[in-house]
Amino acid sequence: MSNTITKTNFSFPNQKSVYHGKVREVYTINNDLLVMIATDRLSAFDVIMPKGIPYKGQILNQIATKFMEMTADIVPNWLVATPDPNVAVGLVCEPFKVEMVIRGYLAGHAAREYNAGKRILCGVTLPEGLKENDQLPQPIITPSTKEELGLHDEDISREEIISKGIVSEEDYLVLEQYTRTLYKKGSEIAAERGLILVDTKYEFGKTKEGKIVLIDEIHTPDSSRYFYADGYEERQEKGEAQKQLSKEFVRQWLIGQGFQGKEGQSVPEMSDEYINSVTERYIELYEKIIGEPFVKADVSNINERIESNVLAYLAKNN
After folding, report:
1. What 3-state class would DSSP assign to 290?
2. pTM across the whole model
3. Cα–Cα distance measured from residue 64 to residue 56, given in angstroms and rounded to the nearest whole number
4. Per DSSP, what are the bridge partners of residue 225?
5. Contact at 8 Å (CB) between 60 and 40?
6. Residue 204 belongs to what H/E stretch?
7. Can you tell me the distance from the alpha carbon of 122 to that of 308, in angstroms, rounded to the nearest whole number?
8. What confidence tens digit (pLDDT) does each residue in 229-268 have?
9. Which of 94, 101, 138, 311 could form an SS bridge with 201, CB 3.0 to 4.6 Å?
10. Could you tell me the CA-to-CA distances from 202 to 176, 222, 298 in Å, in that order?
């Protein structure tokens, strides 16, 4: 669709490198700053869908920005500025090669593993008798490896992370503490908005000074799963699907079309009508979790807008 941004190819002053991730494109400036552009690409089962989702990048970037601002007093983060609706500028960090996934409920990947008979997930033992979407006795951390583009992230235990030297024990304890702190705060904010923060993931990095900070995104529909609190218990008792705001509805649609990112499977065609419905779900989540109307940015020429805003910021601050 014409009003989406799915790829960038900028050349900013003092640009040292560019990294194209699943959804975000990261430009390194002077080896000090990162210019992170949230595209409209949609990734599911570690596969990038052929078409972009209008306004998705803006929604992700603005949710992440607002949550970083709301949690900066409890967990330090990389964010410096947001010169454009799709852009975050932050400190250069060395990312930890793990994603810190925390789950308060048995949903998504954890539910699929549990229903397949597994009772130990990332070294954490789960009790018998749970139903899909049940609240867990307490939130559990189930890390995954952070793989390169095109490779599947893999579940990994705390013990493996430390024994393999992926993260030192000292640093990992900080990652765990920050993960639990952010999830608690995110859950409180969600509850105020009539939502349940079911599960989420965080990524962390180290600044040049050796400080551990939150990087990338936080509490967005790409990294988190939300249920509506109203009617949650009633739906559980009846064995009904939960009303949710997350990317899971895309995954379920893909599964229904016979696609789970496995070898030999083809990505199903997404109609313009379906793509627009995905945009509406993302906007719904933004407005529900942030608590204010979503204002669509000018998308008549997104690339030109982003380039102009980033250049103006760098000229003024670099």
Report:
1. helix
2. 0.89
3. 12
4. 199, 246
5. no
6. strand 195-207
7. 45
8. 999 999 999 999 998 877 777 888 899 998 888 888 888 8
9. 101
10. 10, 11, 30
